[in-house]
Specification:
588 residues, alpha/beta, elongated, 59% helix, two-stranded antiparallel sheet, five-stranded mixed beta sheet, single chain, Transcription Regulator spoIIAA
């Protein structure tokens, strides 16, 4: 089979590129760049880093993902999925920002390797309940992190001159600790903060519906309206009503309106070892979200993405972004759909989106200092709602109990502990349930009287029914013969006890494959029966299983005439053995 050549989609798109396409991409790129600004700032701040790091990530990663990616319209950048992981690393004194940069770089290497070895399709096999479980868990965690800004909660701190100050609430990193902290400080509730946060949220939800029929305004998503109107409202409240206590970005951060110098993170073997599980989680999460976004985009523009090339682009983006102090990035579904809805049809739109953000960073970033933290909280409340997938959760609750268990275990581990543990345990649990289901589909039956040849037989028969002679038992294995079934079959043989037959025929016509445990147990079964003077005959072994047995030197344990192509030959051979061999129970 000819292996498909991997190349960025941009190359193919530029071959027949036209002025008309460029104008569509230009308009889409400008709009997506403007839309991405508040989201990048919000994701940066809520992740525990500075606002410009979110924007830098959107610029650098967004440019590389569009330049090298395997989709036409994917928009890359920071997303809500990484907030929980980043916050946990940055606020861990043992890791800090240095640990985050190393973990992001390592995740980039993993993603690039997955794409280079053409393993993009493997990500699609991660069970759906796991994806929904940790996505819903992340959504609840994001919602929780924003409650301090929504309620305007504060705490006392001692200033440089010894005076008592009210500062934004500093909360623990864990889910339960955050809520305990919120309840303890409810007495500092700020009504104006709450009004701005809820007002911004309502604008995000309803304002796009109000301007739905206005040609230009209907292209802009609600998050930008929420930020702009919220910012203007807070400026007016402070200027003319003297309202205080509504924190803005400028109150908490000193924004640098420039790209930072390239700096390579200092790598140490000890830190690399510690960050490996986190890097793996970032890589898996980034791969899932980017390929999910690419699949959604395919359906919207009737296209087919290259998952391996997309993973390579995501990997390179996550290797380069830390050099500028950025955070993990992946494909963003909301921004990708905004790109599509505004006419973007080639990766050029994604490149323009990154350039637009760069110009905003260099020219307009000082004005971002006026954005209220409560308005950003409103944006992230909407992000958490969209991420929650509550309809998918409700639908999964009607599925088999095993899927529901995987869903809730992954969800609870994500919320109470962290995403790394949730993905690891979720995958182990899903694999265990998968193996259980495979075992349930493989049947082992004992036939003592006669065989109906009309039952999909592997034999050439003349008579209507084949009679099994006395002293012979036929065992039918229907399904894969792997370690779980091998042990089950072994137990069946052991439980027969002193009433064992003199000849055992094992029908393997419906065994598609056999693993090493199956071969080992089958070998032990042959040895045990030989010691007891019982003949074992194999019937109907297919070519694939025969090859596996042959490579394992299994046939060294058996005579060639004990391996029969059909059940009629096996039964005839059994009659010969019964006529010449004494009963193994004769001396009892």
């Amino acid at each position: 089979m000819k292996i498909k050549k991997m190349e960025p989609r941009l190359i193919g798109c530029l071959k027949n590129y036209s002025k008309e396409l460029f104008m569509k991409d230009l308009m889409a790129g400008l709009i997506v760049g403007i839309v991405a600004l508040p989201l990048a700032i919000a994701f940066g701040i809520s992740s525990g880093v500075t606002p410009e790091k979110g924007i830098i990530t959107a610029i650098v990663a967004g440019f590389i993902i569009s330049l090298l990616g395997g989709t036409k319209v994917q928009i890359g950048g920071p997303t809500g999925a990484f907030i929980v992981i980043i916050y946990g690393i940055v606020n861990n004194p043992e890791y800090g920002m240095q640990g985050l940069l190393i973990a992001t770089l390592m995740a980039g290497v993993i993603l690039t390797a997955l794409g280079a070895f053409r393993l993009g399709a493997i990500i699609k096999f991660i069970p759906y309940p796991i994806v929904i479980g940790f996505t819903a868990g992340i959504a609840l965690t994001i919602f929780t992190t924003q409650m301090g800004d929504v309620l305007g909660l504060t705490e006392e701190a001692v200033g440089s001159n010894g005076e008592l100050l009210r500062v934004p609430l500093r909360t623990p990193g864990d889910f339960i600790g955050k809520w305990v902290c919120y309840f303890r400080n409810l007495n500092t509730f700020n009504l104006w903060n709450f009004i701005v946060a809820i007002g911004s949220l309502l604008i995000i939800i309803f304002f796009p519906r109000i301007v739905k029929k206005v040609p230009v305004l209907n292209k802009i998503p609600g998050s930008l309206y929420g930020i702009l109107i919220g910012t203007v409202a807070v400026l007016l409240l402070k200027q003319y009503a003297g309202i205080e206590g509504i924190d803005t970005i400028g109150d908490r951060f000193q924004i640098q309106a420039q790209l930072p110098d390239i700096a390579v993170p200092k790598l140490t073997f000890a830190l690399v070892q510690k960050m490996m599980p986190v890097a793996f989680t970032i890589a898996i999460l980034g791969a899932i979200e980017s390929l999910l976004s690419a699949t959604v985009a395919d359906g919207a523009i009737s296209d087919k993405h290259d998952s391996n090339m997309e993973l390579i682009a995501q990997g390179i983006a996550n290797m380069v972004t830390p050099l500028f102090g950025g955070i993990p990035a992946t494909g963003a579904i909301a921004r990708t759909m905004t790109n599509i809805n505004n006419g973007g049809r080639t990766p050029v739109a994604g490149l323009i989106h990154a350039v637009t953000l760069l110009l905003i960073l260099l020219v307009l970033m000082p004005y971002a200092a006026y954005i209220p933290m409560a308005s950003l909280a409103g944006v992230l409340l909407m992000v958490s709602y969209n991420m929650s997938g509550w309809r998918a959760v409700r639908g999964l609750l009607k599925n088999p109990k095993s899927d529901v268990i995987v869903l809730w275990v992954t969800f609870l581990l994500t919320v109470i502990f962290d995403l790394t543990i949730a993905i690891e345990v979720g995958l182990i649990l899903a694999c265990a349930l998968f193996m259980k289901r495979i075992m349930e589909t493989t049947e082992i039956s004992v036939i003592k009287d006669e065989i109906d040849p009309n039952d999909e037989a592997d034999m050439h028969v003349v008579e209507e029914h084949l009679t099994i002679p006395e002293g012979c038992a036929v065992y039918e294995i229907n399904g894969p013969y792997f370690f779980g079934i091998a042990n089950k079959f072994d137990d069946l043989m052991t439980n027969i006890g002193h009433n064992r037959p003199r000849v055992r025929i094992i029908r393997m016509r419906k065994v598609p494959f056999i693993d090493s445990t199956g071969i080992h147990n089958l070998s032990n079964l042959i040895d045990m029966n030989h010691e007891q003077g019982t003949h074992v005959i194999l019937s109907g072994v297919n070519a694939k299983v025969h090859s596996q047995l042959e490579k394992a030197h299994f046939y060294d344990l058996m005579e060639q005439d004990h391996i029969c192509p059909h059940i009629d030959v096996a039964l005839e051979k059994a009659r010969e053995f019964l006529a010449t061999s004494p009963s193994p129970n004769a001396s009892r």
